[in-house]
Amino acid sequence: MTQTRGRILGVSALALTFAAGLASPALAQQAPNVVVQEAPPQADRAVVNRIVVRGNERIDQTTVLSYLPIQPGDTIDAVTIDVAVRTLSRTGLFADVQLGLQANGDLIVEIAENPIINQVTFEGNKALAEKKLRDEVTIRPRGIYTRARVQEDVGKIVELYRLSGRISATVTPKLVQLDQNRVDVVFEIDEGPETGISAITFLGNRAFSDSDLAGVMVTKTSKWWRLFSSNDNYDPNRLDYDREQLRKFYTNRGYYDFRILSSVAELKPDNSAFGVTVTVDEGDRYNFGEIKVVTENDRLNGDFLQLLLPIRKG
C-alpha cells in the first residue's frame, strides 16, 4: 500500500498486518507459513463503509465480492481481515491478495490475478510418450495457473515414471512469462536410468524350490539378453500381480492356508537395481479324503457320476 492512498490498515496474503499497531497472521498464496500473533484488543475495530476492488482484469468485481466474507456495515478487526485474505487466496484465482481499511472506512481489496496458461509442454521425455504424460496432468491451456496444481502434476509424472521402472526420475516445472498475464508451463524431465531387479529371493518355502516360484512370477531378474522386455524393471504393480500368482500356484496344489508374510523391495545404495525378498508361509497341504456322489434323482447313478469327477481320494 502506498502513502498516496491514505492511511490504510492493511493485510495481504504475503504479509497480513494492520498498520497503527494492529497485528495478524502471515499467509503465502500457495504454501502459507502462518505466524500467529496476539489478537488485537476490542478497541482496534472499525466499521466498513464500502468495499473497493482494485487490480482485477479478467475476474469481475462481483465475483471477487462473492468470495469476500465481509460486507459494508460489518465491524472488522485484524482477525476478520486475516480470514478474508485466506478465503480469497484459497479460491486459486489470485497470486496475491491485500486488504486494507482506510481512515474513511473504505475497505480496499487489492488483488493480483493468477495467470492464464497458454500452453503446456514436456522436455526430456523419451521413455514415455507425450500423450501419456499429457493425459496424466490436470493443467490445460486456457486454464488458470496455480503453483499447487503444477506441483500436484509433478508428483503424478514422477509416479508414472516410478511405475515404469525409473525410480530416480525427476521433474522440474518452469514458467515462461508472456504478455497479457499469460504463461507457458514447461515440465523439464530427467528420466534417469531404468531401475532393474538384481535378485529375487524366497524365504520360508520348503515344498517348492526358488526356481519353481521364480518361474511363476512375471517379474524377472535383469539380464543382458532381456533387451526387449520390461519385466526385469521394478514395477510395484507387477509385484502385486506376482503375489497373487504365487497364491494361486500354492492353493492349486493343496496349500489352502498359504500366505505371503512380506514382500520387500530394497534399492541398492547406487540406485541401480532392487533386490526383492518374498517371505512365505506355505501352511499344510490338504488332500481329498473319501469322495461320494449322492443324488436324489433316481435316473442318475451316483457311482457313475463319481467316475466322471476329475478328483480322487488322496
Which fold does the CATH topology of the largest domain refer to?
Answer: Ubiquitin-like (UB roll)
- Write the CATH architecture name of the largest domain: Roll
Derived structural class: alpha/beta
From the spread of the alpha carbons, the general shape counts as elongated
For the CA atoms, what is the radius of gyration? 33 Å
The overall average pLDDT, rounded, is 82
Name the quaternary structure: single chain
Could you estimate the helical fraction of the residues in percent? 10-25%
Q: Provide the number of structural domains.
A: 3
How many runs of DSSP E, i.e. beta strands? 12
Corresponding CATH superfamily of the largest domain: membrane protein fhac
Reading the helices and strands in chain order gives: EEEHEHEEEHHEEEHHEEH
Distance between the termini: 89 Å
In terms of DSSP E residues, the strand content is 25-35%
Keywords:
about 325 residues, alpha/beta, Ubiquitin-like (UB roll), 3 domains, about 25% strand, elongated
What's the layout of helices and strands?
Elements: E1 8-12, E2 46-47, E3 50-54, H1 61-67, E4 75-76, H2 78-89, E5 94-102, E6 106-113, E7 116-123, H3 130-136, H4 147-163, E8 170-178, E9 182-190, E10 196-203, H5 210-216, H6 236-251, E11 259-267, E12 273-281, H7 302-308
Parallel strand pairs: 3-6, 7-9, 10-12
Antiparallel strand pairs: 1-5, 2-4, 5-6, 8-9, 11-12
